[in-house]
Design goal:
Chain A is mainly α. Chain A has 12 helices and no strands. Chain B is α+β, with helices and mostly antiparallel strands. The chains are: A mainly alpha, B alpha+beta. Chains B, C: It catalyses: ATP + H2O + polyamine-[polyamine-binding protein]Side 1 = ADP + phosphate + polyamineSide 2 + [polyamine-binding protein]Side 1.
Chain lengths: 273, 379, 379, 273
């Protein structure tokens, strides 16, 4: 134990120091030492607010798409045999294995106006479905890239739900659909919340996908931060933007954890023994 | 007690299983089970794990579909009904309480499915919790309750909607010894109070003997014997039944010309059997005697005429508290155990030569043993 | 059998605990425990969970540091030694086999720590596995073995380095009933074969009575009584010891002027006590009688002079297979249970008026009850 | 079940289709239909091989750093009380919460020649420690960013190791250090392998950190892929590069899973019951 204390301190510094540095940057200014001017700039520039809102809206839609696609996927994993489960798990993990770069590239190729998807939608009479350079395209690509972060925590929760509870509910007179809604769904909530939180927060910080697939007209906050650092060379502005993003994120996480704490604690005894 | 007025009005119904089979691929889990529980009866399915007793219970509840055979409740066929339409109460082995609901909500669940009104639900749930002695814990969550209390909530939930048949799958398996004995009495009390039919699954022979009106002994997917506790314990019909239900001594015997008399294999000592015994076909058979039916006495004393006797040497005396067990070697291949209740010990000790005696009526003649009952290497 | 030559040469040593205490903050886990195990003795620490028996065992093994007191092995103090220098064998409750090692490697582990040569390790490991009947499973991993086999590997691992003291922490708790009884015999056999000192922890009174040379009964961190099986079962010194060790009837009694005679509280019926009994100070006391020492007979029959008798009504008769229990109500606040071995039943049935009789020598006089033993609401 | 089959198929397509597209791209050429010319180009261009090797070396060093830092961290989490464990878990998760962008920014700020770290090393007499624009700087920043991916699977494994096995080993005569090495370490191997694999594979595909903190002179494969698409507009080359990266990754994962399968299966029974 005594030996481990310094290790712990080192690690704490390793994790916390970079954050402290950003915090310091955001309160610095070119002229005086400590100032709020970066934050004042952030909230007075209307395009910042617009981009912030667009960033959150995008993240929310991506999260929703991931929940809708990920829940049945994770559920499927709990009911199939071990061979199929292994296959599904590998499929869900492939995005981890292939680099982010490769996947963005794949989506870029897929969303070209000449691509198969565009051809199909045209043939089906949906007219020109413009995906490349639009928020819709960014959402589709981000959802696929982030899906594993939704599926894995969901699966971890669903796997631990005792399926005998469903049998018990049916034995007590509940139709299978009612048993699912009244028993299974509430018990899966912690997994849904954990996955959603993860996907939401990761979406907020996405840079590569919106930069490659989106267009400058509908850029997200990460792109603005990069612009501040690499083109405008304004570290203070970039720091303030990062802090605002972080602060909003932390508040959201805190709210979500408050809402689920009671639920999660109760559910622990519902796990298979 | 006045809860009886509300809860017990509906009395038990008859359950009939006819030629019930369940196969999983090549594996036969349950094989031609015929069984009837009378209205209000406490019927126990007893057997080791894998003997098909739980599969049978799940077929009654509707969780497992029989491969063939019929299940009738109160004279009506229920095979085609899904579980939620059978109206049968069930208590699961690990309780299967809903962890996100309080005790009250758990017990209210079946009533809500039946669209009862809020006031009625409230009355009946509290009544059911009162019946199992948990009226004061209505708003606790399962994880806040002890194992025994969870067991009681599961019981209340299974009876609150007044089913006419209650199934219980090893409900006391997870509890420790003292609590288990206490819950046995509680379950018996509730059975008497409600008057509904109970089908109870257990692998614990003591539990089966103590609680049941009748016991059905399962082995390898088949029923070996059905009868009252004393039927199956004192008059087992198979070696498996004899050995699963408690300690027993078995002697290999060969037939003789005289009816009602066999000789111990390899010893040529005659053994008198109960008068109405029919020797089975074939050369050999096994005589089973319970250890508590044997008497040990110092060798050479006079014995009452008409009793059986074998002479041996005491190998070991094991003190059991309320009794002691005297292990006697009659011959290198014949070992007998005598159980003597505390306060009634014979004056024999380790190393003594003894005569083991018993009444002919206490012998049970069964088929020849084909395989050893306990293979020590497999333990 | 010839393994005895190799393994059993070293005989057991004496273990002495003196005024052993263990506190965790305000909580006292073990309080002034004095206990001695003689060389080669089989000593059992018996008690409910939380009674301090496992903490005591862990202090002997060195996993828990005593708050005060002394532990001596073979006359030498071992308190200051870390576990790996105590050279004590231990079998853990859940076996604690190393899952990444085969049975052979598990058993070889303690020998490797002692820098034995490869050939010697091989011989001794195979010998130890042979002793526990697992010579053919040396290259199986723990997960490939059944519970009973894992238990045997754990045992082999604990004795292979020839410790002079073997500690066992509820080693049979995870096994089912039949296997448990079989393993009890195996452990006794190994105890006899090795001749080393065993300290065995269990909460199962049957196990304790059957296996031990002596039993120490733990309750709330203290030892209530130490003695042979029949000492503690037949002559309990506290109410807790009487009730924990098996079923017992207890009667509240009041002192009288006559020595050796008390009266049942509220009934004014005299109860004869064993001749050497001293009434304790204070007004009241409790008389404890085991159910198998009571005799039930139809009311009004003549009884032998000098025995005690109480009249009551049979409330319930419970069939137990090898015996039956007759529950009798003597008065609304006095209930007695009589245990009658199979084949020796009295001719009484439910509802009959009966006389309950017993020899004065079977009464045990103990302190007055202060709190009820089983509170049903807590179950 | 019947209802879930189409969902499964859709998801399969969702995961597999983008990959198939990249595969097709890599075998396409401007002139003829199917050709190997992109792969020939890849292996004939010496700078590609050099960058590929640099990418793998960097990933390996990052993985090593993460193992060395992550193991004590995860171990610490298993021995402390619940409060400390929660704190350590939150600290380990902070990088998930803060966007990738923010963290890269933090490291960029930290590694400036005028920053505190540089000042400290200068004062300590290590001379000018050049981190920005070097592989060393990239390794430090990537290690911190990827540490959670090492700590979490490790913790999941370590948490399930039955500590009574250590007591048993000591009771059998092993010194505490020997008990750790002979019992704890082997049982923790599956977690180390899982974490290492994850970190290694994620490092391979990193783009943002090397792009921001590294320099063009020591760029990694992801950067080369971006260059091919965005500047040279050669989709075939980019596809071939992505496929080579993917193939090597899959082979490595396969080898690792072969090596640990036996071990992992055996360890399952070592978990606390």
């Amino acid at each position: 134990m005594a030996l481990l204390a310094p290790v712990g301190l080192f690690l704490l510094a390793f994790f916390a120091y970079p954050m402290a540095k950003i915090l310091a940057l955001s309160f610095s200014s070119e002229a005086s030492g400590l100032s709020l001017e970066n934050y004042v700039w952030f909230f007075e520039t209307s395009v910042n607010i617009k981009v912030l809102l667009r960033t959150f809206t995008t993240a929310m839609i991506v999260t929703l798409v991931c929940v809708l696609v990920g829940y049945p996927y994770a559920y499927l994993m709990t009911v199939v045999g071990t061979r199929w489960r292994a296959l599904l798990l590998i499929l869900a993990l492939i995005p981890f294995w292939t680099s982010l770069m490769t996947r963005n590239l794949a989506w870029l190729a897929l969303l070209q106006p000449s691509s198969t998807i565009a051809t199909i939608t045209r043939k089906l009479g949906f007219g020109e479905l413009q995906l490349l350079g639009t928020v819709a395209g960014v959402v589709v690509a981000m959802s696929q890239i982030l899906l594993p972060f939704m599926v894995l925590p969901m699966y971890a929760t669903l796997r631990n739900i005792d399926r005998r509870l469903l049998a018990a509910a049916e034995g007590l007179g509940a139709r299978p659909s009612v048993a699912f809604v009244r028993v299974y769904l509430p018990l899966s909530a912690p997994g849904v919340v954990a996955g959603s939180l993860l996907v939401f927060v990761l979406s907020l910080g996405f840079y590569l996908t919106p930069a490659i697939i989106g267009s400058p007209q509908n850029s997200l906050l990460s792109q603005l931060i990069v612009t501040q650092v690499s083109r405008v060379l304004n570290w203070g502005h970039a720091g303030a933007m990062a802090m605002v993003l972080l602060l909003v994120t932390v508040v959201l996480i805190w709210l979500a954890s408050l809402a689920t704490r009671r639920n999660a604690a109760l559910t622990s005894s519902g796990e298979r023994s | 007690m006045d809860s009886r007025l509300h809860m017990g009005i509906r009395s038990g119904v008859a359950l009939e299983l006819e030629a019930l089979h369940k196969r999983y691929g090549d594996y036969v889990a349950v094989e031609s089970v015929d069984l009837r529980a009378d209205p209000g009866e406490f019927l126990t399915l007893l057997g080791p794990s894998g003997s098909g007793k739980t599969t049978t219970l799940n077929m009654i509840a509707g969780f497992v579909t029989p491969s063939s055979g019929r299940i009738q409740l109160d004279g009506g066929k229920i095979d085609h009904l899904p579980p939620h339409k059978r109206n049968i109460g069930m208590v699961f082995q690990h309780y299967a309480l809903f962890p996100h609901m309080t005790a009250f909500e758990n017990v209210a669940f079946p009533l809500k499915q039946r669209k009862c009104g809020g006031a009625e639900i409230r009355t009946r749930v509290l009544e059911a919790l009162e019946l199992v002695g948990l009226g004061d814990r209505a708003h606790s969550y399962p994880r806040q309750l002890s194992g025994g209390q969870q067991q009681r909530v599961a019981l209340a939930r299974a009876i609150v909607f007044r089913p006419s048949l209650l199934l219980m799958d090893e409900p006391l398996g997870a509890l420790d010894r003292q609590l288990r004995e206490h819950m046995q009495m509680e379950i018996k009390r509730i059975h008497v109070e409600l008057g509904i039919t109970f089908v109870y699954v257990t692998h614990d022979q003591e539990e089966a003997l103590t609680m049941s009106d009748r016991v059905a002994i399962f082995n390898n997917g088949r029923i070996e014997q059905v009868g009252t506790a004393s039927d199956v314990y004192d008059r087992p019909r198979t070696l498996f039944a004899a050995e699963f239900l408690g300690e027993s001594n078995s002697l290999s015997v060969a037939r003789t010309c005289q009816p009602g008399i066999a000789v111990v294999a390899g010893l040529d000592v005659p053994v008198r059997l109960p008068e109405d015994t029919q020797m089975p076909a074939g050369d050999g058979a096994t005589v089973v005697i319970r250890p508590e039916r044997l008497r040990a006495m110092p060798a050479g004393l006079e014995r009452s005429p008409g009793t059986n006797a074998l002479r041996g040497v005491v190998q070991r005396v094991v003190y059991l508290g309320s009794a002691r067990r005297v292990d006697v070697e009659v011959s290198p291949w014949i070992h007998l155990s005598v159980r003597e209740q505390s306060g009634m010990w014979s004056p024999v000790q380790k190393g003594d030569a003894v005569d083991i005696g018993w009444h002919p009526g206490d012998s049970v003649l069964l088929e020849q043993r084909t395989a050893p009952a306990i293979v020590t290497g497999a333990a």
